[in-house]
Design a protein that fits this description.
heterodimer, A: 119 residues, mainly beta, seven-stranded mixed β-sheet, 0% helix, globular, B: 110 residues
């Protein structure tokens, strides 16, 4: 069974930075495409970005609202992906989910970590 | 900034059937597959349907998906109180080069 555990969420001021981590188990991690999806309080789901496996080119794609501010990376040696978030805005407040991705779907989700951007 | 449109809510009595629509355009649903997710209150979403019609592992056949043109539909038959949840559709958008989700639909069992 795939198990994803996010960490690193918390309260940060506008303009600040935060790095989220996601530890994965139960899957062949170096072959896995991984994504981040967020959900603002009381709102719908919003895709943040995706990192493909190195075997698939390691391409990273981002949603327009976070492009240039957020960076996704992976460390296959410890089955972990990261989301570095810079220049945070109040509208980035959300629960951030780490997700094991298929080509066009999201197969397994972590429990989520809450990021609150507020002064 | 949802690109896919879903009805805000649907409801039916236990044992009945509900359908949830997901409307997009030629750059997303019209040219890429659709997936569906169930989000029970206070929990993370769970994959129900991928590739328009394929049920994810462990998902009962009470849940079904279909797609026609630029719209997709999730059907739930034999409705149970445990099906009360938010349901989200999603698809890759080739014009945006991004994955887009629907606005979400709340299912209520009367």
């Amino acid at each position: 069974e795939v198990h994803l555990v996010e960490s690193g969420g918390g309260l940060v001021k506008p303009g600040g930075s935060l790095r989220l981590s996601c530890a994965a188990s139960g899957l062949i991690f170096h072959d896995a495409w991984m994504s981040w999806v967020r959900q603002a309080p009381g709102k719908g789901l919003e895709w943040v970005g995706r990192i493909k496996s190195k075997g698939a080119g390691g391409t990273i794609d981002y949603a327009a609202p976070v492009r240039g501010r957020f960076t996704i990376s992976r460390d296959d040696s410890i089955n972990t992906i990261y989301l570095q978030m810079n220049s945070l805005k109040t509208e980035d407040t959300a629960v951030y989910y780490c997700v094991w991705s298929g080509l066009f779907w999201f197969a397994s989700w972590g429990q989520g970590t809450l990021v609150t951007v507020s002064s | 900034q949802s690109v896919l449109t879903q009805p805000p809510s649907v409801s039916a009595a236990p044992g009945q059937k509900v359908t949830i629509s997901c409307s997009g355009d030629t750059s997303n649903i019209g040219s890429n597959s659709v997936s569906w997710y169930q989000q029970l209150p206070g929990t993370a979403p769970k994959l129900l349907i991928y590739e328009n019609i394929e049920r994810h592992s462990g998902i009962p056949d009470r849940f079904s998906g279909s797609k026609s043109g630029t719209s997709a539909t999730l059907g739930i038959t034999g409705l149970q109180t445990g099906d009360e949840a938010d349901y989200h559709c999603g698809s890759w958008d080739s014009r945006l080069s991004a994955f887009v989700f629907g606005t979400g639909t709340k299912v209520t069992v009367l």
